[in-house]
Every structure is written in C-alpha cells, then in structure tokens.
# Entry
Amino acid sequence: MKNNKKRFKVILHETDKDGSGTKLIEDTDTGITYMYHYGGGGGGLTVLRDDEGEPDFAPEK
# Structure
C-alpha cells in the first residue's frame, strides 16, 4: 500500500512585487527546515542552521 503523506511542507511563502519570493520548507521525515529563494530567472535552496551551525529543526520535532 502506498503512503500518500507528503514529505515536504511549505511553512512560509512570501512574494515580492517583482515576482521573486522566499519559501521555508520543512522535511516532515527529519524535521529539518530549508529556505528556497527564487527570482530573476534563478533560485537557490539551503538548509537553515542554528547558532551552533547544526541543522535547524522545526519546533514540533
């Protein structure tokens, strides 16, 4: 039986007037939070890190 649970959840999505935007995305399996920024024909994805340089986990994990 296939699991229909989505692995990634968008927890914040902000856009600007110029069409660019930023999303915070949570990996629901690991709890790690990523930031995705797009605009001007490009984009980038990075893991968010805490003050000690470790991956930032969603508050409920």
Remarks:
- The chain is about 0% helix and 45% strand.
- The beta strands are 8-15, 21-27, 33-39, 42-47.
- The longest strand covers residues 8-15.
- The chain has a mean pLDDT of 90.
